[in-house]
């Protein structure tokens, strides 16, 4: 587990937001429970794989949205700006590590992960700025390949 805690999750237009216990796991899932799980193997109420997800922060400085590759959406609200930013940072780091594991260092995914905030057209003062720390060594200790074109070259016989 990378991070856990209460966030408010929007349930529907009529029901509004409710406190849910969220867990960000090492295997790249954002899971939520009605309340903090007592047992470690307790089934979550819902979960989202973050591998190909997008994230948007909202102008109120406490809300953000996470949208999965299959268009599942979690609309979330933290207690304050600092907690929201901590969750966003943790999710970005989890996505970066997951992408680097999935592609085994064949290309650097850190530069491609971003929070979708249009700074030129958004005068709301969103102030979150984060650049993920990039790994420079592969798991076997070798250099990480950053040019994927070498993967498609025909080996010499």
UniProtKB/TrEMBL annotation:
User: Mind telling me which GO cellular component terms the entry cites?
Assistant: plasma membrane
**PH domain segment(s):** 1-96
Q: Which SMART domains match?
A: PH
Q: Name one Pfam family in it.
A: PH
One Gene Ontology term from the biological process aspect of the record = actin cytoskeleton organization
The protein's superkingdom reads: Eukaryota
Which PANTHER family does the annotation name? PH DOMAIN-CONTAINING PROTEIN (PTHR12092:SF16), PLECKSTRIN (PTHR12092)
Q: What is this protein called?
A: PH domain-containing protein
Which organism does this sequence originate in?
Mytilus coruscus (Sea mussel)
